[in-house]
Specification:
Length: 269
Amino acid sequence: MSEQELFGYASAVVVGLVIGLAGGGGSILTVPIFIYVFHIPTVLATTYSLFVVGSTSLVGSVNHIWRKRVNLRVTAVFALPSFISVYLSRRFLLPALPDPLFQFGQFVLPKSNAILYFFAIVMIIAARAMIRSDRPEQGEASDGHPRYGSLALDGLAVGMLTGTIGAGGGFLIVPMLVLLAGLPMYRAVATSVLIISVNSFVGFLGDINHTNLNWNFLLPFTGLSIIGICIGMYLAQFVAPDKLKKGFGWFVLAVAFYMISRELYTGIL
């Protein structure tokens, strides 16, 4: 095993650690790791990301449910539309996208590059949210009545995002659960982990029929990520997640600009 592969497997622990501490953000790391460290094709990397993040988040959600931190009613309202959206995106939309996605004269934009650019933009948005580190107030649900219609619509949008780029969307889900459902932050994070878990598995199921998976690689990577989330959930009792999220946000921002610059440089060559 090369040093690069060892670095990649070590990064799997960091993926789980981030999910355990922040309630999301793992998929922001998994896709670049699969593409740039293990040289896995883009679309397949998003499939692997869904399985890893789904499995890792499942372990975290079991712990949160046991501690009664998850709001199951809000989960159902947000998650059911999201499940439908993510499955349809992975099963039909993504395979139906033409390759190249866009062509004008000599300019050609392959589907894999378009997904990477979109993913990098999402990373920049997520990094900004982490760096600002603002805790949203109760917003529209300050009266104690969750806005179920708005939650369902947001679920559809997050499902589309998950299905397209293989990101769990935790950085979007947590603020929406606070603003539209009136959940306190710790319950929003716990509920987000459950939604991410099932969302990711639904998206992964949409890929099984047309994807060949390397389980000898995927299962060890997932196992290390699960070890990471166990460590993260333990550390969350002693560490203030806000400071860690801010540092992680700057790291994500750097990775996003690296992805964009690398793809642009490769495209020029």
